[in-house]
Specification:
Blueprint (H helix, E strand, L loop, with lengths): L6 E5 L4 H12 L3 E6 L10 E5 L5 H14 L2 E6 L14 H29 L2 E6 L11 H21 L4 E8 L5 H6 L5 H9 L8 H12 L10 E4 L11
Parallel strand pairs: 1-2, 1-4, 2-3, 4-5, 5-6, 6-7
Length: about 240
């Protein structure tokens, strides 16, 4: 099943890692539907945009119902996410609810909408973008919980959907140069330098590093790989990371 067959949904495809994933897939001939709150900063004949706040359940459901009615979605990359960092004393249940809706509930809605097409085609690829932070990281109580939950969901779907030719895998990035990263470690800051020095490969990741891993899981040749988590983290999943 070539990338040009069926459509690929990429959430949060307007910037950062999501934009890099979209560009990579478009270069390989995919037809991509980006779902995000803001439109992408680039255009392509095979790229379409659906505006939706994936933390809003009704907006998500309405957007997916419209997409499923007109497109055969055979690949999903759930990349949209935010951090909302806080030490446990300041972490809130409202933030936990928000991140659970964005990282978990919206992914379930997207997958359920696409499953009829995937099962009919006897082919499907589901990739969740989790985080090295799911292993534990200071100030990440709510973020780590929901990103770890993503891993559990995808492993469960690997068992349930494998007989239908649908694989479910996870890419877990470490520190990657994005706008969200620079809010925590500004460009040129001592904090960024300290973080890079703490990484075994001695650099911060690039969005293209993550896009490469996602493209592997989406490939038709990856049909014997499911229920896996690939850490694209420069080696930080082996030990601690300094933020």
């Amino acid at each position: 099943m070539r990338l040009s067959e069926g459509a690929t949904i990429v959430t949060g495809g307007s910037a950062g890692i999501g934009a890099a994933i979209c560009r990579r897939l478009l270069a390989e001939g995919a037809r991509v539907i980006s779902i995000a709150r803001r439109s992408p900063e680039f255009a392509h004949g095979a790229l379409s945009f659906v505006q939706a706040d994936l933390a809003n359940r009704k907006e998500t459901q309405d957007a997916l119902a419209a997409i499923a009615s007109r497109d055969e979605v055979l690949r999903i990359v759930h990349n949209a996410g935010v951090i909302r960092p806080a030490l446990i004393e300041e972490a809130t249940l409202d933030d936990l609810d928000y991140l659970a809706e964005l990282h978990l509930a919206s992914m379930m809605t997207i997958v359920k909408a696409a499953l009829p097409a995937m099962k009919a085609a006897k082919f499907g690829r589901i990739v969740g973008v989790s985080s090295r932070g799911a292993l534990g990281l200071q100030t990440r109580t709510n973020y780590a919980a929901t990103k770890a939950g993503m891993v559990g969901m995808l492993r469960t779907w690997a068992l349930e959907l494998g007989p239908f030719g649908v694989t479910s895998n996870c890419v877990a990035p470490g520190p990657v140069e994005t706008d969200m990263f620079h809010e925590i470690a500004p460009e040129g800051s001592e904090r960024k330098k300290k973080l890079a020095d703490s990484i075994p490969v001695k650099r911060i990741g690039a969005p293209q590093d993550v896009a490469h891993a996602v493209a592997f899981f989406l490939a038709p040749e990856a049909g014997f790989v499911t229920g896996q988590t690939l850490y694209v983290c420069g080696g930080t999943s082996i030990g601690s990371v300094v933020i």
